[in-house]
Amino acid sequence: MCINTYHGCILEIRDVKFFPDGRSVVDTVGVRRFRVLSHGQRDGYNTANIEYLEDKKVEGPEYEELVRLHDSVYDQAVAWFTSLKDNMKVQILNHFGSMPGKEPEPQSNPSGPAWYWWLLAVLPLENRAQLAILAMTSLKDRLIAIRRVLIFVTRKRPR
């Protein structure tokens, strides 16, 4: 479980590699976001009372706008990743795996589409910015935020 002062995510352990010198590498994936209501310690372990976060669903014209935004940002993300140098792409793919495909229904997961969280992990963002986005409960707001980041990193990169 990863926690900051206010928000975090439950992690699922996918794999653990142990090394002879006592170190280990733990491969995890975030599965559910939460907000910390209170925290403390028990028997030397950090504990917290939490509230799970879910996106607010939209309908009608707002939903149609969300789908257009979702599709547009997804296409922008694919274009950004495709434009990276091959060595950078290989490093990302080796560490994070392939970008998940675009879901036909952007609101099907209570935390939003999987490709979005993959992209958030691979973009060059400070932890503080990632946590601010993690805490958002509006998929539209998160998509707008990531679109801004994609525009910035695309313009910033030397040609």
UniProtKB/TrEMBL annotation:
Superkingdom, natural source: Eukaryota
GO terms of molecular function: ubiquitin protein ligase activity
Ranges of residues in domain Lon N-terminal: 1-154
InterPro entries: Lon_prtase_N, Lon_prtase_N_sf, PUA-like_sf
SUPFAM superfamilies reported for this sequence: PUA domain-like
Designated name of the protein: LON peptidase N-terminal domain and ring finger 2
Species: Buteo japonicus
